[in-house]
TrEMBL record:
This is DUF5994 family protein. It comes from the Bacteria. Residues 170-180 have a biased composition (Basic and acidic residues). InterPro entries: DUF5994. Residues 1-22, 167-188 are annotated as: Disordered.
Length: 188
């Protein structure tokens, strides 16, 4: 499955309930085990509201999701049980034992799966990169390390844009463009 990056919804509740709009990227089926099995980009930090759409997509692919664990530093409220599509998913948490940016899922058929949780406020370009990197079957970075790398890449891009803006303000593009134009003789 590939990343699905959708445009801002007309209503968040309607968008969240639609599995086709789920922002999810999974490693190719049958690929060698990596640290992460993919990435999920929820629209909020409301686990009770976000989890049903995620499990609706994953249940047919991986078997019924029975348990989810998270790190509480990223989720303000962690419900003990979340009703989803005819069954209940038990939710637990680990503080020191689990990467703060990872969601661990347990299913009957596949066993344990690990997803990077892309923070909801992440800009779309960074989220797309994170989702692709997390679903790379050759990936060797942890969820937190991927987020650090995305932050570093964004800072470099912003610095490059700032340098270009200064160059432009000093006549950079205009000077280059006028230098590239051929000069014509004026009748003097």
């Amino acid at each position: 499955m590939t990343a699905t990056i959708s445009h801002p919804p007309t209503t968040e509740a309607a968008d969240r309930s639609s599995p086709s709009s789920l922002r999810l990227s999974l490693a190719p089926a049958g690929s060698a085990p990596a640290l992460l099995d993919g990435a999920w980009w929820p629209r909020s930090r409301d686990l009770g509201a976000e989890l049903p759409a995620l499990t609706a997509v994953l249940d047919p692919l991986w078997g019924r999701i029975t348990r989810v664990t998270v790190n509480p530093t990223q989720w303000p409220v962690i419900p003990r049980k979340v009703p989803v599509a005819g069954h209940v998913v038990n939710v637990g948490w680990f503080l020191a034992e689990q990467d703060p940016h990872e969601l661990l899922l347990l299913s009957y058929r596949v066993g344990r799966l690990n997803l990077l949780v892309v923070p909801p406020q992440t800009p779309p370009d960074s989220a797309a990169w994170l989702m692709a990197a997390a679903s790379d079957p050759h990936g060797t970075l942890t969820a937190s390390r991927l987020l650090e790398e995305a932050t570093r890449r964004r800072a470099l891009r912003d610095a490059d844009r700032a340098v270009e803006a200064v160059w432009d303000s000093e006549g950079g593009h205009a000077a280059r463009d006028s230098a590239a134009r051929p000069r014509t003789a004026t009748g003097r």
